[in-house]
């Protein structure tokens, strides 16, 4: 349920409602950014009538049920878009954000060269995996802590904040020391205990859509994080499994307007994993911007033919720079900027 306070409600009135909600066995959460004060009462939904009775309080305007199973991430609860500030880079506003870099951190030279190149082309966030979720245990698993240190070095040199993936709860504290955005990979989208742990951190999160998950399941995962207190969640569409094998995944761009309608969270598109081949990354990046995405995550490698992972879908820096130019034009056409 959402409890909408009267416009002239005082802090004391809000505290009073918080107490009552708790007494009924629900957890009250203040919704930030609304014009009016709004409190979400979260719980298992038993005895809603008690909550409804709060409507009789003079400082309460209305008590309305949240119809969707996801609550805190829903547009029903918060109408304005959430804008996440990552060291001055605003995600979810008019300006688009581009996160770029290699799939895996492989060496100092590789990351520095690639990082400098994407920064020069206009990227604002550096991506790179230090802990890699690989299908085969015999494939390169990532550089681990050394990779995180390299990300920090290149971030310091370029001024770009870092997004990097956490694969397991045992690395979470370490990742938090280095990352500016914690990436939750597709394979971990429903690792509920890790989602809860991440929900207790005060760090922006990029939550990728699972390989074969519905939009509702994806939003329920966002809800897991937000219900623990961390509301700085952005979503990332990275393609889903379908019968089609010509591309690595099927990039579901229809998810973008849907997410915009159903939630107030920023939505990022990752065309690199979405298609799996560099040849189609440009078209799908432009289409993602046209569809209303708040940003892109793109894999770029200085020498894709030598990449330890995802070389076939990685753009060379020059191709990335050309893409950024075209992306600026599409952004302008849809009322956004790069
Ligand atoms: C990645 O970003 O390199 C990655 C492994 O992504 P996903 O979880 O979408 O497969
Ligand atoms: Mn990758």
Our count of domains comes out at 2
Radius of gyration: 21 Å
Contiguous low-pLDDT stretches (5 residues minimum) are none
Helix content: 25-40%
Distance between the termini: 38 Å
Give short descriptive properties of this protein:
14 strands, TIM Barrel, 338 residues, binds manganese (II) ion, 2 domains, alpha/beta, Alpha-Beta Plaits, binds phosphoenolpyruvate
Walk me through what this model shows.
The structure is a single chain. The chain is an alpha/beta fold and 338 residues long. It folds into two domains: 2-64, Alpha-Beta Plaits, CATH 3.30.70.1140; 84-333, TIM Barrel, CATH 3.20.20.70. 34% of the residues lie in helices and 17% in strands. It contains eleven helices and 14 strands. It has helices at 11-23, 48-52, 108-121, 145-158, 172-178, 192-199, 215-226, 255-262, 271-275, 281-291, 317-333; strands spanning 2-5, 27-31, 38-42, 60-64, 84-86, 89-91, 97-101, 125-127, 162-166, 181-184, 205-208, 233-237, 267-269, 295-299. The strands form three sheets. The chain has an eight-stranded parallel barrel, surrounded by six helices. The model has no long low-confidence stretch (mean pLDDT 96). Bound molecules: phosphoenolpyruvate and manganese (II) ion (MN). Manganese (II) ion binds next to loops.
What's the helix and strand layout?
Layout: E1 2-5, H1 11-23, E2 27-31, E3 38-42, H2 48-52, E4 60-64, E5 84-86, E6 89-91, E7 97-101, H3 108-121, E8 125-127, H4 145-158, E9 162-166, H5 172-178, E10 181-184, H6 192-199, E11 205-208, H7 215-226, E12 233-237, H8 255-262, E13 267-269, H9 271-275, H10 281-291, E14 295-299, H11 317-333
Helix pairs in contact: 3-4, 3-11, 6-7, 10-11
The protein binds phosphoenolpyruvate and manganese (II) ion.
Phosphoenolpyruvate binds at residues 103, 129, 133, 185-187, 208, 238, 273.
């Amino acid at each position: 349920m959402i409890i909408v306070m009267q416009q002239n409600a005082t802090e004391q009135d809000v505290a009073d409602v918080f107490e009552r909600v708790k007494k009924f066995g629900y957890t009250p959460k203040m919704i930030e950014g609304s014009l009016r004060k709004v409190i979400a009462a979260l719980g298992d939904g038993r005895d809603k009538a008690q909550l409804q009775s709060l409507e009789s309080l003079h400082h309460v305007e209305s008590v309305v049920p949240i119809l969707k199973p996801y609550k805190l991430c829903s547009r029903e609860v918060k109408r304005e878009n959430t804008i996440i500030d990552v060291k001055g880079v605003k995600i979810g506003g008019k300006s688009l954000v581009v996160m770029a870099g290699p799939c895996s951190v492989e060496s100092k030279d590789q990351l520095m060269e690639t990082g400098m190149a994407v920064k020069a082309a206009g990227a604002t966030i550096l991506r790179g995996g230090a802990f890699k979720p690989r299908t085969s245990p015999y494939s390169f698993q990532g550089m681990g802590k050394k990779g995180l240190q390299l990300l920090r070095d290149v971030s310091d040199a370029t001024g770009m904040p870092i997004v990097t993936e956490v694969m397991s709860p045992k690395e979470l504290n370490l990742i938090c020391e280095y990352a500016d955005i914690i990436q939750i990979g597709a394979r971990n989208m429903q690792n509920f205990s890790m989602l809860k742990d991440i929900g207790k951190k005060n760090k922006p999160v990029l939550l990728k859509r699972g390989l074969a998950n519905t939009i509702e399941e994806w939003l329920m995962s966002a809800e897991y994080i937000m219900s623990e207190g961390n509301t700085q969640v952005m979503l990332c569409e990275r393609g889903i499994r379908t019968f089609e094998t010509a591309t690595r995944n099927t990039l579901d761009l229809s998810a973008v307007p849907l997410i915009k309608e159903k939630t107030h969270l920023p939505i990022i598109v990752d065309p690199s994993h979405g298609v799996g081949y560099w040849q189609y990354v440009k078209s799908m990046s432009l289409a993602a911007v046209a569809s209303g995405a708040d940003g892109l995550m793109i894999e770029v490698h200085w020498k894709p033919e030598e990449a330890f992972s995802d070389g076939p879908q990685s753009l060379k820096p020059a191709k990335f720079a050309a893409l950024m130019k075209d992306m600026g034009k599409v952004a302008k056409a849809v009322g956004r900027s790069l």
